[in-house]
Amino acid sequence: MADQQLMISGASNDGDDAYVITSLVRDWAARMPALAELKLFKDGREMVDKSSVPQGVDPDAAPVYKLMRQLGVVNLARRISESVTDRQQPNGFRKVDDSSLKDTDADQMAKQCGLTALLRRRLLPDKGDYGCSFAYVNRSTGKRLIHALSPWECWMSDDEDSAIIYTYDDRDGKEIIRLFRLTRNDDGEPDKVYSRVASRESERTVVDPADYSALAKFVDDHNSKGTTWDAGTNWSWESSDSEDFDYALKCESLPIVRLSTIDGLGLFEPYFPTLKRIDREVFDRLCITMMQAFRQRAIKGDLPQTYTEEDPDVINGLAEAGDPIDYSRRFAIGPAALWQLPDGVEIWESQTTDTTGLQNIISSDIKHLAATSGIPLDILSPDVQGSANGAELKRETLKFKVQTMNELDSESIVRMIRMALILDGKRDAVDANFEMVWKSMDTTSSLEQAQACQLLYQSGLLARRTILTHKMGFTAQDVAEDDMNRFADQFNISGQSSKSDAKLVAAVEPATGWDDETQSAVDGLPNADGELVDEGESES
To answer: Please, which pLDDT band fits residue 514 given cuts at 50, 70 and 90?
Structure first.
């Protein structure tokens, strides 16, 4: 990087922060055109290329073609992305070294930070759309210690030892880029985490992702001229940041965590050519349909060019002999229009064009898209029929996609929760061994799922709690609540029976243990000999 200009004006040669921030900014800028195009496609705001419009179009027809460019969009990109991310269902955390699946501090921290909402609204969708998303662990207003960042705001190096966050202060008219770095000692072990702030007085130069017109222009300029965002070289370091990132250092990480797809690309990004081809075909079909809604007419024959004394318009005083004839007015279209045709003149009218072949081509390309993307065809197209077993087999690829995404995200989510726990004062969280739990992606009906679980339990292949957690998606709290409800049902049945016919109650202690109130109730239950159970001696 020694041969390139640094974005920090007057940067010292003996420090490498200027080199690192310049490198990150240039990598981020190189990715921006793709981010803009991905944003347009995800929100259904892309349009077919202007070259699709016939050259030399009448200016009066230009708005019509523009409208059809906007309408000729089949938002299959959103379906590809959401078909994966919507099936990523977080289901809490569990301790790896605790077979009882007791609830952990991680669950409480996740609730405190609103992790489920962050994942569902920001982190998972952004990762699916753009190929990556980011979470920033730090204190702010309130108790939420985890903040979601999109690739429009944040970027990170491949080794995850450096990252930047971009913000724009519209009140002061200032662009701000904050650099985060993790440095290592000679043994490769992390020894410091710090940040620095670079800023400049300027209008916002990074394209606003909420401005679709600006995004479209940004993409067009990049495709036609190769232009992209240029950060410039007039940035300056602000005063040193004294913020303590000890909680991140303990986790051997930056306070920024990245969630990413396998290749760092958006889920529909590799299929841009097919998506654009489908949009063009839909545009062509709309053009044909629109043209046929107003049939084209032509006059065949030798028509006079000027009025004569015998013309009705001259006789009625609407024109003078020798004036040029305006046939667009003479043959005006209307429900009460009556045309007078000269001798030997005929009218030609365009006929309907069959668009079935074009629709078949669109359907064929959608099938091609489903095959290459691994998304079941019935998700992308509504007119697909087949057996339930066939649909299940077709969803295997999608299921593997979801499982892979879950595995990739688990470590990142656990790391951000661990940092949040340490930041919240729970220092022992650095050694806590817990993992993310995801709900199973089963596409079977509730009846089929219940029957399968019953078979697994009756055959002895799996224990009841294993089935509840791994097949039914129960959390540790759900299992404990079910145990409590079963105990309550047994207690009520026992209380309704006479003492002579009373059956012994099996009070099975749940995974999370009894609370004081429940333990007191358990102490009063009869044991195997019909005697009351003493305190602390509950039996099953």
So the answer is: low
